[in-house]
From TrEMBL:
The keyword Metal-binding does not apply. One of its GO terms (cellular component) is plasma membrane. This is Equilibrative nucleoside transporter. It comes from Aphanomyces astaci. It comes from the Eukaryota. Keywords: Membrane, Transmembrane, Transmembrane helix, Transport. The chain crosses the membrane at residues 34-53, 65-86, 98-118, 124-149, 161-178, 193-213, 241-259, 279-299, 311-334, 340-362, 374-397. It is a multi-pass membrane protein. GO terms for molecular function: nucleoside transmembrane transporter activity. It is found in: Membrane.
Length: 405
């Protein structure tokens, strides 16, 4: 009988084979990256609708569509979330995630194509706002499923979903800048068609990420036990999480109060030509997106000692930026581009950092068996903050004369 060599015996030794803990750690690292892609993908269409300010100005020269889009999207989104919370059922992950991404792709294809088969500003307005509402409903089902699923995973999943959200805003801003630069300045429609087309292809990546996630051992184990871990929203759960959920909503409210509406209306005081060709608002939107990603990345690496009891310290001070940026947008006191850049950068950095920490510390308030329901609740409060911020933003814009609604 031939005996295996010493090298073969050593390779087969249990001490050399990867341990269960090692495999789980590797699986979790891969899962975290896939959650980043899913977080990037599910919020991408909303960001995609917000970014092409120059295209919306071309279609609606006498109507500031950015404010209306934000309001329609967020109202439809929050109403759908109310229904989801009222039903209080375990999310159907595959149906909600794959189906949600599919609807988003269809909308991102139909919105630009409608330019060629609709005529008149009113028809275009109905099409764009209706599509935005459909997009919001699909995104809310997708949103609740992604957050609920990420909450069931070990530390790292939620942080990467938040980081993905930030990347989504940055990538859409980059897409718009690149597609605009590829065409002469007067070919706004053509550059926008390319922008939406690339955006639709990008969303498909979210479906691929989810299908890859399902194949991981850690995901199969988590999905197998998910029905037992999901709970209805009992009073005891709300007692634990309500204060932190309110702070989470406030962190997003502050950002949406100023972005995209106020940010996109800050003019260039030192280079007026950038206002005429539409570059300045796009540059400010891109700067906000980049700063937001940096803030989210910093929060995923270091909490700076922030806990569920002290997270208010990074949420509430951000509201000091509201009057400062309103002054910059209306030409009062702050009339230098350097100051505008500083304000937008601070808004993005603080927003990314505060929003990420606010959602992560909520999970510190509950037991493992309550994390799935907590994830759905967090998604609801995020969207509640967004819709309140967007609604207040419309009122703020009307007061400032920025949105002729």
């Amino acid at each position: 009988m031939v005996r295996p060599s010493a090298n073969v015996v050593q390779l087969l030794s249990p001490s050399v084979l990867p341990s269960h803990a090692t495999l789980t750690s590797v699986n979790m690292r891969v899962a975290s990256k896939l959650f980043l892609v899913m977080g990037f993908g599910y919020i991408f269409p909303y960001c995609a609708m917000m970014q092409p300010v120059d295209y919306w100005t071309t279609l609606f020269p006498n109507f500031n569509l950015v404010f209306a889009l934000s309001c329609v999207y967020n109202v439809a989104n929050i109403l759908t979330f109310v229904v989801i919370l009222w039903r209080s059922r375990t999310p159907q992950y595959s149906l909600q995630i794959v189906g949600g991404f599919a609807v988003q792709v269809v909308v991102l294809i139909l919105v630009p194509l409608s330019y060629y088969f609709l005529s008149g500003e009113s028809q275009h307005l109905v099409m764009v706002l209706t599509s935005t509402g459909v997009l919001a409903i699909a995104s809310s089902f997708l949103d609740s499923a992604v957050f609920s699923l990420a909450s069931l995973f070990p530390k790292g999943a939620l942080e990467n979903v938040q980081l993905g959200i930030g990347f989504s805003n940055l990538i859409t801003a980059t897409y718009r800048l690149v597609t605009k630069a590829m065409f002469p300045s007067h070919l706004v429609v053509e550059s926008s068609m390319m922008y939406f087309g690339v955006g639709a292809l990008t969303v498909v990546g979210g479906v691929v990420a989810y299908l890859m996630l399902k194949r991981l051992a850690i995901a199969r184990e988590t999905l197998k036990t998910a029905p037992q871990q999901q709970q209805s929203f009992q009073r005891s759960l709300w007692t634990k999480i309500l204060l932190n959920e309110v702070l989470l909503a406030l962190s997003y409210l502050c950002s949406l109060l100023l972005w995209p509406g106020v940010v996109s209306n800050i003019p260039s005081y030192n280079f007026p030509s950038l206002n005429a060709n539409g570059w300045w608002p796009l540059l400010l939107m891109a700067l906000f997106a980049l700063s937001d990603v940096v803030g989210r990345f910093a929060a995923s690496k270091c909490r700076l000692g922030i806990t569920r009891l002290t997270v208010w310290k990074v949420v509430l001070p951000r509201f000091a930026l509201v009057p400062l940026m309103v002054c910059a947008a209306t030409g009062h006191t702050f009339t230098h581009d350097g100051v505008s850049v500083l304000f937008v950068t601070l808004l993005g950095l603080s927003g990314g950092f505060a929003c990420t920490l606010a959602v992560v510390v909520v999970s510190d308030c509950v037991d493992d068996s309550e994390k799935g329901a907590t994830g759905v609740a967090s998604a609801f409060f995020i969207n509640l903050g967004i819709v309140l911020g967007a609604t207040l933003s419309v009122g703020l814009a009307n007061c400032m004369g920025l949105a002729p609604l």
